[in-house]
């Protein structure tokens, strides 16, 4: 596998920045870094492993998609005990929609790890979701189902899955916050600014203040998403007040 | 949950025949038998649990489908390292097709456990596959992913999954056996007879003999399936001779 090491970043446990970055992303130590190298290798590099099999993320995408689907299924099954089979199927489709997975991949800035012969701007939007799925596949191969589940909970379910919003009961947290402030005659400000930093993808940050006090912040790849993220956090921060008024 | 116990068979660890039968089917001891009671309860009974949630197999079907899909995905990923994403997707669809799942459910005679207000003959063919999926969901809830995986390997992958046949490279093992016998000028007999025994569903058995010696047996819910099963076994029993002649 040395020929791969030359192309992707060095990955030995001691000196590899790829290993270090992946470990930070996963919140656990990878056992076999090669799975992750594969998860971020685009087929345009035309790499093969020692057995002559294609070395790129496409097959891992298939595996990760199945693992993600089963983790989300078990989450929904337990979370919504009254949900019918049709309801559960529909909710899962929303969570694992191509659009949503692309968003997740972008928010984790996974593209920074991708090795490709095609310029990153030209690979299309789906690469973000595809490598996100491939990463889940790599985790499964490297550490098994429970790590896979833990990762999906940490990176998908806890930060992004909101049953009420998916059900369409809440269409916009920003709307809720504004409505509540107006009703309560509170002054609010939703301040948005570009905050890309060193990242490849443009990012925006949002600060929400109520009566001069900062309540929540959000940061994402679009203004709208960052606003919703901050508003959702503000909603949960204020939930006791909101639901009792 | 006592009201359920009255309808489904008694299920305490010591005296329950349902518990005993399920344990035999699973090859391991169930922890919480209620999951399995649910997996075999049809909605026509209109049962609820103590929290007022529907007590039937429909939600478990959703969960089991996802678990089965992920186990098959990981099996195929490892088994066929040269298979592209498209190939893997197609093979999985064949394995988890409605028709195939119904066949699996029938072969395990799962219908014998079903509690329903509708006569078993009137529930339609899909019930066999549906309760098979629900059973996988129940195993996941009761014992976790690894038991689920073990069950799918024992009951689906090892006895039924044959990559060459799924790929269409071998369309009929019976054809292969006959062709080989004719080429080798060997006498063969394929003997089929009804063999239902005490079961609810009609069963057939098949014996294959070559030059007067019994080589393999098969048993299934249709003549054709029993013949293919016996022929496949005969093929593997004779493989060394077949491939070297």
TrEMBL record, chains A, B:
Residues that bind Mg(2+): 61, 130, 133
Task performed by this protein: Digests double-stranded RNA. Involved in the processing of primary rRNA transcript to yield the immediate precursors to the large and small rRNAs (23S and 16S). Processes some mRNAs, and tRNAs when they are encoded in the rRNA operon. Processes pre-crRNA and tracrRNA of type II CRISPR loci if present in the organism.
Active-site residues from the entry: 65, 133
SMART domains: DSRM (SM00358), RIBOc (SM00535)
Quaternary structure annotation from Swiss-Prot or TrEMBL: Homodimer.
Record-level Gene Ontology MF annotations: ribonuclease III activity
Residue stretches making up the RNase III domain: 19-144
Localisation per UniProt entry: Cytoplasm
The protein's name: Ribonuclease 3
Reactions this protein catalyses: Endonucleolytic cleavage to 5'-phosphomonoester
One of the Pfam families matching this protein, by short name: dsrm
Keywords: Cytoplasm, Endonuclease, Hydrolase, Magnesium, Metal-binding, mRNA processing, Nuclease, RNA-binding, rRNA processing, rRNA-binding, tRNA processing
DRBM domain mapped to chain residues: 172-240
Organism domain of life: Bacteria
Documented EC number(s): 3.1.26.3
Species: Asprobacillus argus
Stored InterPro entries: dsRBD_dom, RNase_III, RNase_III_dom, RNase_III_sf
Cofactor(s) recorded in Swiss-Prot or TrEMBL: Mg(2+)
Family indicated by similarity: Belongs to the ribonuclease III family.
């Amino acid at each position: 596998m040395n020929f791969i090491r030359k192309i992707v970043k060095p990955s030995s446990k001691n000196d590899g920045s790829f290993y270090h970055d992946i470990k930070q992303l996963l919140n656990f130590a990878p056992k076999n870094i090669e799975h992750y190298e594969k998860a971020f290798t685009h087929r345009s590099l035309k790499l093969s492993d020692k057995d002559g099999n294609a070395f790129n993320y496409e097959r891992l995408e298939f595996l990760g998609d199945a693992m993600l689907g089963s983790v989300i299924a078990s989450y929904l099954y337990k979370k919504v005990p009254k949900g019918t089979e049709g309801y559960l199927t529909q909710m899962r489709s929303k969570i694992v929609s191509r659009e949503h997975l692309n968003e997740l991949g972008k928010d984790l800035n996974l593209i920074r790890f991708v090795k490709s012969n095609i310029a990153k701007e030209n690979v299309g939007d789906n690469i973000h979701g595809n490598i996100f799925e491939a990463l889940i596949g790599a985790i499964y191969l490297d550490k098994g189902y429970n790590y896979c589940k833990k990762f999906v909970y940490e990176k998908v379910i806890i930060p992004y899955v909101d049953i009420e919003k998916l059900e369409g009961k809440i269409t916009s947290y920003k709307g809720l916050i504004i409505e509540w402030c107006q009703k309560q005659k509170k002054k609010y400000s939703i301040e948005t600014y570009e905050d890309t930093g060193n990242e490849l993808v443009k990012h925006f940050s949002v600060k929400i203040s109520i009566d001069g006090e900062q309540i929540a912040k959000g940061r994402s790849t679009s203004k709208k998403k960052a606003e919703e993220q901050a508003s959702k956090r503000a909603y949960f921060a204020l939930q006791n007040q909101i639901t009792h008024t």
